[in-house]
Each structure stands twice: as C-alpha cells, then as structure tokens.
Write a structure and sequence with these properties.
Layout lengths: L1 E4 L2 E4 L10 H5 L2 E9 L2 E2 L2 H14 L8 H14 L5 E8 L16 E7 L7 H5 L1 E9 L16 H12 L4 E5 L5 E4 L3 E6 L2 E4 L2 H4 L4 H12 L3 E4 L4 H5 L3 E6 L3 E8 L2 E2 L7 H19 L1
Parallel strand pairs: 7-8, 7-14, 11-12
Antiparallel strand pairs: 1-2, 1-6, 3-4, 3-5, 5-6, 8-9, 10-11, 10-13, 13-14, 14-15
Bound molecules: pyridoxal-5'-phosphate.
The site of pyridoxal-5'-phosphate has 14 residues, from helix 7 and strand 13.
C-alpha cells in the first residue's frame, strides 16, 4: 500500500511524520474521509470545499489548489489500484518547535491514505444499531465550530469510549443546552410521520456530505425535510431514527438508551432513503 506524503509515494510502513509535527503534538490540522465507489470518488468537490473551509477556519494554508488536490487523490487511487476505497486526506500544520505558536511550522504536511473499506457488518443494516446518549457534550459552536473537521477529535473519541463502556458501537452526543448534536462520526436524523429532522449545524453538527445528500433526496422524495433542533425526548418517541456518514452511508437505529424505537426494526422510510442514496451514488458515478 502506497501513501502520498508531501509529494511522494512511500510504502505504508515507511510513511512517517516527525514527533514535532503540530498535528501530532496539538491536533493542529484538518482532515477528510471520502468514499470511492466503483472508481468514482463520491462528491470529491464537496469534500474538498469542506477541507478548505476547515483549513481557513484555523488559518491553515493548504499548499495546493483544489485542482491539484483532486489530481493527488486520483493518483493515490491509481497507484494503489483501488476501485472501492476509503480515502483519508490529512493536512497538518507541519513540523515546528514545542511552542503552540503555529508560526514555527515551516510548511503543512499533506497526506493521502487510500485503503480498502472497513464497513459495518451487512447484518447490521438488517437488524439496525443499538446506541446510547452520553455525558460528553459537543463543544460550543462559537468556540471551535463543529462544522470544522479538525484533527481535534477528543470530543468524538470520548463519545466512542462511552459507547464502548455501555456495550454499543455508537452513541449520540448532546450540545451544552441538551439538544441532540450528532454521533461520534455520523449525523443523526429522526422520522415522525412525513417529517424528517436533522440538527442544524449551529447545534453542533458537522455538515456531513452524506447528510447533505440525504436532505437533497428527502426533499426530492416529498418528505417534509427540516434542519431543526430536537431533544433526546424527540428521539425516544420518533417513528424511526437513522445515522448517516461516509463509511456507514445510512444505518437504522432501533434502540436508544434501552428504549425501542418504532417496532424495533429498521424503518420503512430509512430503508427507502438508503436505497435512494445507493441509487444516487450510481447516478453520480455515471455523470
Ligand atoms: N459528524 C462527524 C463528527 C464526522 O466526523 C463525520 C464524518 O465525516 C460525520 C458527521 C459524517 O459526515 P460525512 O457524511 O461527510 O462523512
């Protein structure tokens, strides 16, 4: 497996960065996770827009244009002869001294990893996920916006740890006011009748690329799709709950904090949206 590291392809076990990299020392950097379906990179432009948006937010200048980044992604896929893959793009502040000040970092490091997908087991799409809500709160959007996909993922890691301690694989985090924000690495939707809700970005959700695709599809399919805040109570009494993300696509949630959602099986609308999403992926690839 070949890793793109600052202009060169190096073998996986040789792809190393300095312990003085501020991405390592302080989580100073940004990243993206992107999916490749049958040789087509899903919504690469949207992912690159989010990457540059995240970088701008932390005043990190990516040393390539979006066109160059596109080319690097494509070359990495070709080099690894991958048709279905997960791509991780990482831009760290670079190597500096031990101080926090990023001005000691001469240049950002650009890393692209492309590998085979590690997916949720297929059965989970039939049975649905059991999740919990956790004590970890989403950081406030006026401090470091959760819309920024930075290398600071401690919030999300704590959510994952709490989920594991509760014996489940994913969990929902609330914001400081008690509104539901998102999962550790996915967005959340609830269905009530013809209405579908997902938390707006300002509540503390990343504006997921899969989330955007589902909002688009829900509108096309005639649902009353809204970006609106909701609470844990609304989740408990929803007809259906599902999560969206690059790796998970659309996955049903059938139990939250031990409470059964709907009839305890993946809901009709969730399955309909998953099918519509998979169809859109193919249509996008044909463009
Ligand atoms: N929320 C967080 C915190 C994430 O890290 C991710 C993963 O990228 C998502 C949501 C889902 O976003 P996307 O659909 O772009 O993968």
């Amino acid at each position: 497996q070949w890793i793109y590291l600052n202009g060169q392809f190096v073998l996986k076990h040789e792809a190393k960065v300095s312990v003085y990299d501020h991405g390592f020392l302080y989580g100073d950097g940004v990243f993206e996770g992107i999916r490749v379906y049958d040789g087509n990179v899903f919504r690469l432009d949207e992912h690159l827009d989010r990457l540059y948006y995240s970088a701008k937010s932390i005043m990190l200048e990516i040393p390539h244009s979006k066109e160059e980044m596109t080319d690097i992604v494509v070359r990495t896929l070709r080099k690894n002869e991958l048709k279905n893959a997960y791509i991780r793009l990482v831009i760290s502040r670079g190597v500096g001294n031990l101080g926090l000040d990023p001005s000691s970092c001469a240049k950002p490091q650009v890393i692209v990893i492309a590998e085979e997908l590690a997916l949720f087991p297929k059965e989970l799409y039939k049975t649905g996920l059991e999740i919990v809500t956790v004590a970890t709160r989403r950081n406030r959007p006026d401090v470091l916006s959760p819309k920024v996909k930075s290398l600071n993922y401690l919030n999300n890691i704590l959510v994952k740890i709490e989920a594991s301690l509760a014996g489940v694989s994913e969990a929902l985090m609330l914001n400081d006011q008690g509104y539901v924000a998102e999962g550790s690495a996915d967005n959340v939707f609830i269905v009530k009748g013809n209405k579908i809700l997902t938390p707006p970005g300002y509540i503390g959700a990343l504006e997921g690329i899969t989330r955007n695709a589902i909002i688009e599809l829900a509108n096309e399919l005639g649902y009353d799709m809204r970006e609106e805040p909701f609470t844990r109570h609304d989740v408990y009494v929803a007809d259906e709950v599902f999560l969206t993300g690059t790796a998970a696509e659309v996955i049903a949630v059938v139990k939250v904090d031990g409470r059964v959602i709907g009839d305890g099986t993946p809901g009709k609308e969730t399955n309909k949206l998953l099918a519509a999403f998979r169809k859109r992926v193919v249509e996008d690839g044909e463009k």
